[in-house]
Structure formats: C-alpha cells, structure tokens
Amino acid sequence: MSSDRPTTTTPRPLVRPLTARSTALLTALLLACTVLLGTGAPAARAADPTPATTATGASIAAALKTSPVYVDPAYAAAVTPAQQQQLAEQIAATGLPIKVVLVPLEKGDAFDGDDRAMASVVQERLGQSPLIMITSSYGSWLSGYEWPVGDTHQARDAASAVGLLKELKDAGLAAKVGRAVELIGTGKGTEVYRAESDRLDRERSARPRTEDRADDTPSGSSLTSGPFAIAAVLVLALVVGSALLVRSRRRPRHTAFTFPDAVFAADRAADEAGLRRRAADEVLALGTALDGADGATTPGLGRALDAYDAAGRVLDAADGLPDLAGVLALAAEGRAALADGPRLPLCFFDPRHGTAARRTTWRPLGRRERVDVAVCADCAQALKARRSPQVLAVRDQGRTVPYFEVPAERSLWAATGYGSLLSGPDDTLAARVTSGEFTRTSGRRRRAADHQD
Asked: Could you list the residue ranges that cross the membrane (predicted)?
C-alpha cells in the first residue's frame, strides 16, 4: 500500500552516558531554573498546540483537483470558506497555475514536518507542471515553490516577502496568502522582497548599540528575579548541555551518501502500480519507434533493439520501484540510440525525473572523490543551492537509503547509476542486462533480504 508517511528505524544511541561531573553540572543548572521559576517569574500559560494533520499527499492532491485552495481543518477558523472562495477567484484572475496548501506541519506527520517534502509529494501526486504552490511553513510564514524549478514567477521571493511586510505583521493567514498570490500575479515578488530586506537592514543599522543604552537596562532586582534571569539561565543550561552532548557524541559512521529522511517522502508516496504502467508504456513507445526506423539510416538500430529486449526482460522480472525505474532507463537508452547525436541518460538521483539536462561533478557526503553524474534541471538547482535533491529510495538491510547506496553486487542500478556511471560508449545498460548482471544482482538482493528476515 502506498503511503506518504516516512518509515523510521530505531537509531543507534548517539551519545555516551554523561560523566558524574557533567551530570552534577546539569543538575545544578536545572535546580537554578526551578528556583527562579518558583520565586520570581510569572507562570507561563500553557500553549494550545495546533492539532496534527491527518492529510496525505493523495488526499491533498485530490482536493486540489476541485479547488486551487486546500485548507486543513485545523486552519478552518483562520481561513474561512468565504475567504477560500475569494482566494480561488483571485488565483483564477491571475491566469497562473497556482495552488495553495495550508497544513499545520509537525515532526512525525505524513511529511515529517517538512513543507518542501509536502510540496514535492503533492506535486508528484498531481502530476502537474508547470505549477506554482504556496504552502504554510512555520507559524504564519509561507513558502513558495515552482515547477519546473526556477524563478519564472518569483514564487519563493513572493512568499518570503509577505513575512517581512509591516502592514501584514498582524494580518491573518488568508490576507497573507492573498498578498502572496498578488505578488506572484504581478511578478513583483523579488522586487518587494529586496525592498523589505533593505528596509529591515536600514532599521537594524539605525538602532543604538547596546553600550549606548546602559541607562535603559532594567534594575538589578528585576534582572535577577524576572524573565531576564530565567532566559539567561535557560540559555546557559542549553549551551552547557549541548556542549556536553557534542563532546560525548560518538564519531558518526558515514555511509557513502547521506540524505535527511524527509527527502524520501515522495518515494514512500509513490504508486508502484502507476510506475509499472508508465514503464510498460515506455517500452511500447520504444517498440513503435523501432517499427518505423529505417536500418539504412539509423546506425544505432541494433543498440535500440538490444535496449528494447532488455527493457522487456526487466519489466517482466521487476520487483519494486528501482527495477521499474530501470525499465525507464533502458527505454531512454533505446530512444537515444535511435536519435542523431549523443544524449544524456535519465537523472542520476531519480530516473523518474526524466532525461538529464546536464552532467555535473558531485562529492557525496563522507567521500573525498567527486562523482560525475547526469542530473535533471531540478536536481541541478538543488545541488547549486546546497540542498539535497529528491532521490529514489529503497529498503536495504532494514534501512531506507538512496538506491545508489546499496552495494553494487546487489544492484545493477547502484553499479550504473541508471546510465550515469557507465564506463564508456560500449558499456550500456542493455549489455549489462543481456550478460546476466541484472539477474545475478537481483538474486543476491533477494537472498540478502531473506537472510535479514
């Protein structure tokens, strides 16, 4: 069954037990906080947490097919049905493919509290591009995303600008979303964001320095018995505690590639049956292209036929998303053989992203050497921004890992990067499948899984 919820494994302890000295220091600091809280500080009112959402990528996408605005029930009071209708009409007036998704995110929900992961899952479920999406982020802040990735409509800056505007400081969520839609529609998101950022810089620069405000400092009694003292002691406790934990942390065991768990959200939400249909369609399309190819004018016809045969074999034996993605890669290899001139393979990070736009060198975390890989435009943009790209994830040895982290002896796809890591023109995915490498690695993977169970 498909799910948007990240699967987790029990992590190994990251810290050693604290020493007696460390424990004593932390205990003393906590006692100090207790004394201050009990004698001088007013009791803090318990916060009323926003209910966790039960929404999934599939349910949000289904709702967005009938209205461009999705509001989680937890935000129903903040964005009423009438306001939702106004936003929908405002979006329609722009003529742009804008969707609004307002969901209270937190760790442990279907998106692990990551609005970027939520946006990626919803976009994948919608299957829509171009697309502009405005999402809720932290508190009343907004985030903006575009597909294809870029700044065509300045969605990111428009959403960020709303959080800086003075006139919207105390505005409701509906008003902020409306202003973001307006900025996207007029193409002034970047202009307003830069203007507001400059304003804030000027205001900060104009503020008097701390030493010039000595007379404004509260009296000694208020500093030692009020919230200032509590804040100071809490900060001290956190700093010292963090230092102790960092010092006692075990040296991490680096794997070949490391990505945050939220990156896998889109993969866990993927519909395997849908990808199988897509893979079958790609093989059928390649077969149709082969039927119309002229052997006299198509030098790569033989390679294309090999790729077609290999794609059919893998499709018949496919066991999960990685193998189905391999069918896509083989079909792409066949199409490239029929085309004039060289073509890049599918995206290294996830073949479902489509044909790569460029090659780039990338140094995986924990490695010294760089890897030359083919990447799509979205992944190239993510790497440029020092963000982890969306990757095709698999379960291996009880862990969820990027497909390319599986040992090469258990995965043809890890060994080849779906075409990115082939050694030269004569080294092809089709040749590897024909030589039996797919069958051998698949067998080893199944035996390893059986042993793990």
From this structure: 228-246
